[in-house]
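name: query_chain
kind: protein
chains: 1
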Amino acid sequence: MTGQKMTDTMYCDSPVGRLLLAGRDGALVGLWIEGQKYYRESLKGETGENAASPILNQAKQWLERYFRGERPSVSELKLAPEGSEFRREVWKILCGIPYGQVTTYGEIAEKIAASRGLSHSCAQAVGGAVGHNPISIIIPCHRVVGADGSLTGYAGGVEKKRSLLIREGADMEKLHLPSRGTAL
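structure:
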């Protein structure tokens, strides 16, 4: 026995594909679109399907509301994404991006630099943190775009990113599919 607690899992269907939800200790620790890059990456130790898990059912209801066109708040769910301090800082910034709006990797890097009293931070490092977001959709990494408005860097694929942004009412006139490269 490693001392690692069991992680509860649940699958649910969505307009962007089958989703895997993961929860531990009453908090959501993962949400992946089946087949996305880094799928199940942060799931360590023993896992088991648990349709009775309160946090997984709350997350499922949150997602159902989201896909019906409602705008549930990230703060409605207890989230516990696992990652370095830097990654958690990036993910916290993502949670503050309003529905229908986007930001760039560079803008997030500037916020982190300012919060740390630095003159600059690396947008590429931010891109790595955004790409490894273990709680897709709810922590809205799909709202981060390239400096030129390209829909790049989504582990679930740019078509799913585009679909989520359209669903949220983003101004797609300023955004475009990248000419090459789709995920970090």
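note: Residues 74 and 96 are 9 Å apart (CA to CA).
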